[in-house]
Specification:
Blueprint: H1 16-28, H2 32-38, E1 42-46, H3 51-56, E2 67-70, E3 88-92, H4 93-103, H5 107-123, H6 127-135
Parallel strand pairs: 1-3
Antiparallel strand pairs: 2-3
């Protein structure tokens, strides 16, 4: 699959399906045992967070939020829980693209960073833990 990160390749902004492909690619690089532990987390790519989310997160602009984890942190879950909603990770396309253009970073790296950060919230990981996962070289557990 051709890498989708080269800003010079685009005559129009990358679409939702491009970011979804990058998210799948990034997801495949995290340790397999971590992917297995995630269970049924669903990843959605939307253009922007909704107004309720922006208000809840105290955002001044819809570009302030690149991603969001919705669900119960695994450290807070109990085997007796019966979740009403599925755990979800939202990646917000337009804010991610804005950050990508401003930063000059590789788009695949930006998507991976946001995805791993949101997965980290799911597990209650520290920033150091998340950085370690970002540097993980492939999809197999060590």
């Amino acid at each position: 699959m051709a890498r989708l990160h080269d800003i010079g390749r685009y005559t129009t902004p990358p679409e939702t399906q491009h970011l979804e492909a990058l998210a799948r690619e990034a997801y495949a690089t995290i340790p397999a045992d971590l992917r297995d532990a995630l269970g049924n987390v669903v990843i959605h790519v939307l253009d922007f967070p909704d107004d309720e989310t922006l208000e809840e997160m105290d955002c001044e602009s819809p570009f302030d939020l690149l991603g969001l984890y919705r669900g119960t942190n695994l450290l807070m879950k109990s085997s007796m829980d019966s979740p009403e909603d599925m755990d979800m990770i939202f990646l917000y396309r337009r804010p991610i693209l804005d950050y990508w253009c401003d930063s000059g970073e590789d788009l695949a790296d930006v998507v991976k960073h946001v995805l791993i950060h949101e997965i980290g919230h799911h597990f209650g990981f520290s920033d150091d833990d998340m950085e370690h996962i970002e540097r993980y070289p492939g999809g197999a557990a060590s």
